[in-house]
Design a protein that fits this description.
Elements (H helix, E strand, L loop, with lengths): L1 H4 L2 H16 L8 H22 L10 E2 L7 H8 L4 H23 L15 H29 L3 H6 L5 H7 L5 E2 L9 H7 L7 H13 L34
Parallel strand pairs: 1-2
Length: 249
Amino acid sequence: MLWLQLVSLGVLPLEALLLLLLLGGQDPGPWPGLERLLCWMLGALAPALLLWQRPADVWSLLLLQTPLRGRRPLQQRLSRLQEGVGLRLGLILGTLLLLPLLWWIDNHAGLAHSYSPLSTSPRLVALLLSAAVLALMLWQWQQLLQAVWLLSRPIDTLTTVPAMTNEAMAQQRLSLGLPLLLLASFEGEVQASSDSPPPRTTPAATANEADEEQASWIPGGDIADLPVAIPPEQPAANQNGDGLDQEIR
């Protein structure tokens, strides 16, 4: 899942292009600077304050997440490594960079007026949708920094970091999205049969098996291979049958 979060590096330019299309629907009002500042505060500054207190969970993709009960000890140790000064500074840097980015995009949004899906909508709708896109960009920015940070940690560090409990992650991490369905590990019948001990044999059963083997084998071949004489049928006491002795009336 950490490698999937690196896809944000290619998605962020597409979201900036989406901002250009949204803001190109209407001309700025009489105070465009104030509009941009309010949009940045709503879409970047407010989410940054929330992410400062509760960083984004590295096992959450905003729409889907790994449930707390299904996380392995290695994932719990990696969650503990999210507490770093470099990640905090990266969050501040990303929040501040969104303001000049929004300013520049709004200045050139008139070029995309004919392609904007909000050409008939008021300016307020475009600003609110742009604030939502800014919040999404900030979330992905922090996820990208955390993924790069955790993937660059040495393996020896993971053995010394204590695992983070589920209660602590629920209180200190912002985990959004629906929990993934984790299937239990399948154990085949062959493995189960190989692990089971062989059946115990009793002396009586061993003796019966020996008798059966001795009865089914004779020197020189099997019993089925030897000629066997079949005794002739014994004649009845009355060759005419019992029914002829009765008097016919």
